[in-house]
Amino acid sequence: MNHKELLEKMLLIRAFDEKVNELYAEGKVHGTAHFYVGQEAVAVGVISALREGDVITSTHRGHGHAIAFGLDIDRMAAELLGKASGYCHGKGGSMHIADVKAGMLGANGIVGGSMGIACGAGWAFRRRGEEKVAVCFFGDGAVQEGIFNEALNLAAIWDLPVVFVCENNQYAMSKSVKTAFDTDTLSGRASGYGMPGVTVDGMSLLEVHEVASEAAELARRGGGPTLIEAITYRYLGHSKSDANLYRTREEIQQWRKRDPIAHFASELEKRGELQKDEWRELEHAARERIEEAFEKASEQPEPEPESALEDVYA
Amino acid sequence: MPRDITYREAVREAMTQAMREDDSVFLMGEDVGVYGGAFGVSRGMIEEFGEERVVDTPLSEAGFVGLCIGTSLMGMRPIAEIQFSDFITHCMDQLVNQAAKLRYMFGGEAEVPLVLRTPGGAGTGAAAQHSQSLEDWFIHVPGLKVVMPSTPYDAKGLLLASLDDPNPVIFYEHKLLYNKKGDVPEEQYRIPVGEARISREGEDVTVVAAGLVHHHALEAADALSGEGVEAEVVDLRTLSPMDHETVRGSVEKTGKLVVVEEDVKTAGWGAEVISRIVESESFYALDRAPARVAGADTPIPYNKNLEAFIRPSPEKVIEAVRKLLDVKVGVYS
Predict the structure, then answer these.
(1) Angstrom distance (rounded) from CA A149 to CA A152
(2) pLDDT tens-digit profile of B134-174?
(3) pLDDT surpasses 90 at A240
(4) Do A106 and B65 touch (CB under 8 A)?
(5) Cα–Cα dist A67/B36, whole Å
(6) At what angle are helices A260-271 and A205-220 packed, to 10 degrees?
(7) Between chains, do A124 and B74 touch, taking CB under 8 Å as contact?
(8) Which of A160, A194, B105, B146 is most exposed, with minimal Cβ within 10 Å?
């Protein structure tokens, strides 16, 4: 595992979403988007624990998962701008970026919507005798949906190689986990399904990586699913319409002090794996890369209007 | 020599043949294993294919339909059975927002070859939550196909074709058809999804139907023949995509259209059949206003007489055709 590369991934994710946020503000991107800023250690920590051939399902807040999984920034940027060269040829946008052939089974605009799909990928692996793993990302909001119960139970009774990663970013839009749950942890629910559950500091890439590696290995060996709860925080609003009326500036500032990127960079500095302030250079490079991607994307052609009628059926 | 088997056996034969041929095909649903399915459709299959391919699930329609969608993205060919079509409400998100949309949202870069089989319809005294005909919901969702065979022969041929189809197909069976017998060749054959069939030729009136009530239409046509009225009966067989061409051809010949459907009348698929005629050139071939024989706009009641009162029947079809022929309307009157 190359720590510097992981740091670069986190920086790319942050730069990507900050750029998208800026483009929305300028009215250069339409629709909506959900930003992953603050949660980078979860996607990168988990996905760095995977191997070739493993798959993931993502959420409406999916840019981070896609970048961590290795999707092409240029095609992601093109999709955000609705271009024909985007991952979905302009038909999906922010919430539906996917590369099914590569194993990125899709961002999903429905909360909890991909939990069954992840089980299906696990089912296919198990059935074919492949030692592969499906990672299912979802938020604290999805834990409240009915399919959470169904999917975790199915994965447990059939020992499916699925790692359920709950990104507890403290809010389902404006609903705080403090008032939405009457339990201390969400990972505690795992015992109700007969699977291991673990809560981890989602602001620490190394800690996330460690628990995800364990869960992935367990799944690979036929030991069934694990529920990981990564405690994290989204710095930006739920989506572009969010005025942050349900939380305080102070609260956001408190979480920013535990920033996963700064935290990891200083850890690497301490270990001598990174020169002092080298991460600022990496951050600059990431921003350049993202600028370049959106610039290139903006020059790409629009899809033909008639293409709206295609791809309804195979 | 004809080989008469039941509709239930025809469905089972299609699944069995597909599963023998392709290891990626499997059946998943509630009580489909040792129990053989609530209507006995999969009886005996677990003995042949084992519990890894005939999979009993807990009561988790959203979970296992979602799982089937996931396997289809991974190149498998799942058959999900929803025990009663009413229970589809439990997995609406999976069908409407996932199965139907993934391909389009992903810009055509994915396929979801899911077949979801489910028994629909009334006539069993099972009341409002076990008797509905909700197929219209899915006709209204681009990305899904909706199939509704009325004979054992079509059930087998359409199920095999549905399993070949790279798109999600909702396959409606009817509880009252399961014991119906018909000639079904043992060898495999496919009936293209989206093709209607003229099941009875006639010159005087076109009667379009699908599923169980297609047999009501045929019965009515035989009775009307005694009155000197020759009805042409069109069995749609697939509701989405709908074969408007075959309906148009028939209507242009007869000039009269009656639609028979078991679902409730308001916004039912019969309205679509009629709209496509009246907005096309075939409108000018009509010499009567089209008519519909449909379920009443009510839930399905328990009492036998009440249930019969609100459902289509051969008698109601006969009555509708007689009425259509009696009344002269429009410029031709």
Answers:
(1) 6
(2) 999 999 999 999 999 999 999 999 999 999 999 999 999 99
(3) no
(4) no
(5) 46
(6) 90
(7) yes
(8) A194
